[in-house]
């Protein structure tokens, strides 16, 4: 390979040629990003970046089993390629047998665009968004509020090649917008976020109008004590909770009695009703607007993923079907241990089955309760119940007789998403949303708002 060669599919092929291991998986990730940042109603920075990461997974057969070694490096040149392959092989030979060892996947049709150049983003992705954002700055300035935030667009082209003949590719666009409005004295704050593939479906004017309304609500302040309140959780908050639930739903952990999905006395809770509402929690790599990789693409092994499964085709999966737990995430290895179906993780999550009601409709039907904006700093307290704690942020509002009557103080909460599903009394219309807490790791979500009659606000928080 020439030192000038930089085509990702050629790098994958060359790494496979260099391999002396019994098996080899090579993943080339070509990443480009474009971003805008703003503060005080003015753009502050913008930038475009490019990068490449190459991951080599070597497998070595031995008398006691198959070992694996994984090495990833950024900006690998032609001269650095062979040392990278050798490092992965050395790591495999120095490791003990891999518990999750399986035959490498084979027989998957080649991606027709495997040899094409990687897709790239650029500042052009903001061609329509940036002028509209500028107009929002002018409106906000005239309305006595300040806008802060950032927009980020990332495009990753992943090329997967294996010694068993797989040649697969996936292009993943991922855009996020976070917009924060503050009063000039910084005593009032409101947040809105959006997930997008291309920024063509993001309307800064609509977001600014939403934030202006919320700052208006906050002009009246009401202090409330800790306690249990009827609470409306918006889609972003529901997403943050259910993403954590999904991350905690490994089949093996449940079968071994370590999680909320473990059945007392042994086994798992698959087949149990989690909620009386007809809700379905699902993932689908081909979900319109939330498309994700249609095959397993993982750079490391863990409780819910295995490098040996790379390239395994993914199909639509219902984790919860009309309230009943149907699947837990499982690799080929953990499926064999638990007797559950193979169900790898998928890069999106959707909760549907609620009524055709907007969040505004649900507010109008509330006699007295709280309306949240988003959740923050979510941490696990007890894996056996999946009890989580965290904070509310950027606006908790009091609803009385179907109207928002003011802003209340923030709270720390203690809740389990599994328990919340069981206690929820109403779900609204499913819509695309940006999880605020997990937006650095997981953005492709569609959720309804949920009504919980007794959400546990365990203590008062002084945060804004």
Arithmetic mean pLDDT: 96
Uncertain parts:
none
Secondary structure tally, helices: 9
Dominant shape: globular
Strand order of the largest sheet: 3-2-1-4-5-6
- Helix proportion: 10-25%
Give me the count of strands: 20
Q: Helices and strands, in N-to-C order?
A: HEEEHHEEEHEEHHEEEHEHEEEEHEEEE
Structural class: alpha+beta
Please state the oligomeric state of the protein chains shown.
single chain
Q: How many discrete structural domains?
A: 2
Major pleated sheet:
6 strands, antiparallel
Q: What's the N-to-C terminus distance?
A: 56 Å
* Percent of residues in β-strands: 35-45%
Rg value: 24 Å
What does this structure look like?
- By secondary structure, the chain is an alpha+beta fold.
- Strand 14 (387-400) and strand 15 form a beta hairpin.
- The chain has nine helices and 20 strands.
- The chain has helices at residues 8-18, 78-94, 129-142, 204-217, 235-247, 251-255, 332-338, 359-364, 417-423; strands at 23-39, 42-62, 65-74, 146-162, 167-182, 189-196, 221-222, 227-233, 280-283, 317-321, 324-325, 349-352, 368-382, 387-400, 403-408, 410-415, 426-427, 431-433, 445-447, 450-461.
- The chain has two domains: 8-214, PmbA/TldD superfamily (PmbA/TldD fold); 220-464, no CATH class.
- The longest helix is centred in the N-terminal third of the chain and has 17 residues, at 78-94.
- It starts with 7 loop residues before the first helix and ends with a strand.
- Helix 1 crosses helix 2 (78-94) and helix 3 packs parallel to helix 4.
- The strands form three sheets. A six-stranded antiparallel sheet has the order 3-2-1-4-5-6. It has a six-stranded mixed sheet with strand order 11-10-9-12-19-18, covered by helices on one side. It has a five-stranded mixed barrel with strand order 8-13-14-16-20.
